[in-house]
Design brief:
- By secondary structure, the protein is an alpha/beta fold.
- It has helices spanning 13-23, 43-51, 71-77, 120-133, 145-153, 164-169, 219-228, 262-274, 298-308; strands spanning 2-7, 35-40, 57-64, 68-69, 89-97, 100-104, 115-118, 138-141, 159-162, 173-179, 186-193, 205-212, 234-241, 249-256, 277-285.
């Protein structure tokens, strides 16, 4: 049996994302037999369950098209040990188009909705819509999308910004469905496990690293140049404060390509020589198009081999 943790409770978008990945038949190292799902109360707790071998894999949100990165997930992906102990690795991702359900204990006029429970990330994605639908309402903070539904069921709020799954599990009725300020809003979720060989390259892959850089002028530009000079497209660059070095930052980078692509492998080796620490988060199939693939170096390899053989080209 394989144990999968996820940012819960049951009914969150994260559980929906996990179910979608499992239904797709994603290939995972060491996965075997039946599936057991365990809800965790935060992205950090989910990752810690994997790190501590309580779960084989964990599903967490990493970023959204509206709010950007999920800081709690980014911080938790950093290994607690300066070396490699405690490292986790990404093996798959899924992108969900996100729209929310507004649910309550009973049908009620919009003017009677005074409090709306919402997870902060969700509130940011529906604030304008909720203000139009329920002009007398104020947001109250919930610990997750599913917890918002539970808060309403327990009488702590009039309505919830939640998922249809969580609304059903809490016995709520739907007041509005498909609610979102942006029509194309989406959230990306990662499936992580303990380190193992990455999934095979597909030609449409993503590679992610965390960089700790020396606190000297130009260190970030030099690191970026290891990708730019090799024609590697970066799709995400995020910074987070380093708690171990106050006043300094670490950087989270997503690149188009796979560690087995020559250009990506060269860039990673160069970063290892240049940076204080490189944490390899994995290479895995991208759920949607990510950008231009790394260049094919075969022509230059052939040319160089011919030069070494003394052939004129």
């Amino acid at each position: 049996m394989s144990v999968f943790a996820y940012f819960g409770p049951s009914g969150t978008f994260t559980e929906i994302a996990l179910d979608k990945m499992l239904a797709s038949g994603v290939q995972l190292p060491r996965a075997a037999g039946d599936v057991q799902k365990i809800a965790a109360n935060s992205p950090a707790a989910t990752i810690e369950m994997v790190r501590g071998s309580v779960a084989d894999f964990g599903c967490v949100p990493i970023d959204s098209s509206v709010e950007g990165a999920v800081p709690a997930t980014a911080d938790a992906l950093v290994p607690p040990d300066p070396g490699t102990a405690g490292r986790v690795q990404v093996f798959a991702e899924v992108i969900l188009d996100v729209a929310f359900t507004i649910a309550a204990r009973r049908p009620m006029p919009a003017t009677e909705v005074r409090t709306v429970a919402a997870y902060p990330v969700a509130a940011a994605q529906v604030r304008e819509s909720v203000e139009k639908l329920y002009p007398n309402a104020q947001f109250v903070t919930a610990s997750s999308n599913a917890a918002a539904a539970a808060d309403v069921a327990d009488g702590r709020a009039d309505a919830a910004v939640t998922t249809s799954l969580a609304a059903g599990l809490s016995g709520l009725v739907t007041l509005a469905d498909g609610v979102a300020d942006a029509d194309d809003a989406y959230t990306r979720f990662l499936l992580i496990g303990r380190p193992a060989p990455p999934p095979a390259a597909t030609g449409a892959d993503r590679t992610s690293v965390i960089l700790d850089l020396s606190n000297v002028p130009g260190s970030l530009m030099a690191a970026m140049n290891e990708f730019a000079s090799r024609g590697i497209d970066l799709t995400r660059i995020e910074s987070r404060p380093r708690r171990d070095v106050p006043g300094s930052y670490r950087f989270f980078l997503d690149a188009v390509g796979h560690i087995d692509d020559d250009a990506v492998g060269e860039a990673l080796r160069a970063l290892y020589r240049r940076c204080e620490r490189v944490v390899y988060l994995g290479s895995w199939p991208a759920d949607r198009g990510t950008g231009a693939p790394p260049p094919d170096p075969s022509d230059s390899v052939d040319w160089f081999a011919a030069v070494r053989r003394g052939e004129v080209r």
